[in-house]
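Human: Here is a favour to ask of a fellow structure person. Comparing notes only helps if you start from a blank page. I am asking you to supply a protein in sequence and structure-token form. Write it directly below this note and I will take it from there.

Assistant:
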Amino acid sequence: MSKNSIEEELVGLEKMIRQLESQEISLEESFQLYEQGMKLVREINTRIDAVEAQVLRIETDREDG
């Protein structure tokens, strides 16, 4: 898992998207960027899921307390 913040990861993903949209990269580079981007999306989703679970635990603890 990355040490960057979720926001930093999203900025990196946006950069990859801009590169994919440009006409200046080869097909091979496009495939590599796509693969990296999809991996990053999965990592970001996992981290967001973890944050959501943490928030739910906090809310549950507060309601029980």
User: Anything to note?
Assistant: The mean pLDDT is 93. The helical segments are 6-21, 27-64.
